[in-house]
Amino acid sequence: MKKISILGSTGSIGTQTLDVVRMHPEEFQVEGLSAGTNVELLIEQARAYRPRKVSVSRKEDVDHVRMHVPEGTEVYYGNEGLIEVAAGTDADTVITAVMGSVGLSSTLAAIREGKQIGLANKETLVTAGHLVTALAQEKQVQIIPVDSEHSAIFQCLNGEQLREVKQITLTASGGSFRDLTRQQLQHVTVADALKHPNWSMGSKITIDSATMVNKGLEVIEARWLFDLPYEKINVLLHPESIIHSFVEFQDTSMIAQMGNPDMRVPIQYALTYPKRLPSPASSLSLSEIGALHFREMDMERFPCLKLAYECGKIGGTATTAFNAANEVAVARFLKGDISFLKIEEIIARVLDNHQSIPSPDLEQIEQVDQQVRNIATSL
């Protein structure tokens, strides 16, 4: 049995990971689970899967959780708890599904212990891609992407030579507002933004999809996952989300990965690679779909994607600043503090005043992250 820990077990990716475990109980043993504030769901999960260790974000929740989890399950909290679940168990694979840059230190800790990473926390590579990939190479740890787009590229490159890749293309659904004009975006609400047309995701990533920040983060993540320059990473609008991404090779051949939009497929592939097992997802019927559509990405309509490319090419802490400013801006939008278009305005204003530090160490990254959050909060 493969032993796994899940960081962010009560979120969208975490619960769907446990769906996969539930379908293949003979394949997986859950060693650790971490959650934020949804302690009741964490308790249910701990009772069902009996992990050795669980963690919550708040110290005040520890006693309550400890009273209700199975005997022998240790309870931790905070960043140290995340690290304990990531690196302090016998897990072979760690699924990193926490939201935001909070996942960085625990992912690095898991890599140091030689654990394979199923990466659903794109902010880890966005904020510190050079550190994460260097450590993974040193420890001979494989990072297998869980995002549907990066999983698709990973699958398309199986058995291929990276030097023969002409370009990769990440597809984008366009999010909740893909057919609205800039003028129409001025009056959209939080409820409108959370209605994603294709995918069932958490609130933060759904907003990121609407602003196209999510695709920008994926572009930066792809640069580190596949060791490709930004000039070879494209984005194409594909409303149906059937082709999850594709690769074009030097001979103009293209290989694409297709399927219904169901995150349990890339999650399961990350858990079972290189094997493929029956999936809880439904099979794709191209005859029922009938047609697929594609449009060039409009960088003026989606300026956050343009900013992500610019930050990626600058490098250093520019991508850290981009991510931190966005996390704060999205949180403010979800609370009703700012309008939808103010998200991109805050990101742009932060970046206009940021002096990127090339090749930063972890301490510098954490300092920049906190400084940017303070600025983005005050704007």
General description of the model:
- The chain is an alpha/beta fold and about 375 residues long.
- About 45% of the residues lie in helices and about 15% in strands.
- The protein is built from 16 helices and 12 strands.
- The chain has helices at about 10-25, 40-50, 60-70, 80-85, 105-110, 125-140, 150-155, 190-195, 205-210, 215-225, 265-270, 285-290, 305-315, 320-335, 340-350, 360-379, and strands spanning about 1-5, 30-35, 55, 75, 95, 115-120, 145, 165-170, 235, 245-250, 255-260, 295.
- It has a 7-stranded parallel sheet, sandwiched between helices. A 5-stranded mixed sheet has the order 11-10-8-9-12, covered by helices on one side.
- Helix 5 runs parallel beside helix 6 (about 125-140) and helix 6 crosses helix 14 (about 320-335).
